[in-house]
């Protein structure tokens, strides 16, 4: 099956509507999917989304997934490797910052002291 994200041309964009809390994330973290044809069960396709952390919000467990992930920190701050109480971890980054994570990379947990906005690209890659 061929996967292809839909054609989306420039149009007015509402940053106040269409946000949802992703499954498994705490309240205060929301995402807005911009375009997607991702099928995590079939390990195919891709997704482009915005992810937003509220002030002081943190995750408590590391993440690992089977797709490639590229993340651009557009605004705010993000601490990587926080503990279960949200204490700071390995480092705090401020915008603009970028991360690239191959499939199977363990990353997080995360915390944002003042809130942040991330642009994320998720996609499956064929193994050579």
Question: What's a concise summary of this model?
Answer:
With 128 residues, the protein is mainly beta.
Features:
7-stranded antiparallel β-sheet; 0% helix; 128 residues; globular; 7 strands; Jelly Rolls; mainly beta
What does it look like?
The chain is an all-beta fold. It has a single domain (29-123), classed as Jelly Rolls (Sandwich). It contains no helices and seven strands. Strands 1, 2, 3, 4, 5, 6 and 7 form a seven-stranded antiparallel β-sheet that branches. It is globular. The two termini are 19 Å apart. The relative contact order is 0.25. The model has no long low-confidence stretch (mean pLDDT 90).
Topology:
Blueprint lengths: L28 E8 L9 E8 L14 E13 L10 E4 L2 E5 L8 E2 L4 E8 L5
Antiparallel strand pairs: 1-2, 2-7, 3-4, 3-5, 3-6, 3-7
Unreliable spans: none
Give the overall silhouette.
globular
> What value does the average pLDDT take?
90
Output the CATH homologous superfamily: Jelly Rolls
User: What is the succession of H and E elements?
Assistant: EEEEEEE
Assembly category: single chain
CATH topology tier name? Jelly Rolls
Amount of beta strand: 35-45%
Number of helices: 0
Q: In the CATH hierarchy, what is the architecture at level 2?
A: Sandwich
The tally of domains stands at 1
Number of strands: 7
Largest sheet: 7 strands, antiparallel
Q: Structural class, from helix and strand content?
A: mainly beta
Indicate the radius of gyration in whole angstroms.
Answer: 15 Å
Query: Could you estimate the helical fraction of the residues in percent?
Result: under 10%
Q: Specify the CATH class.
A: Mainly Beta
- End-to-end gap: 19 Å
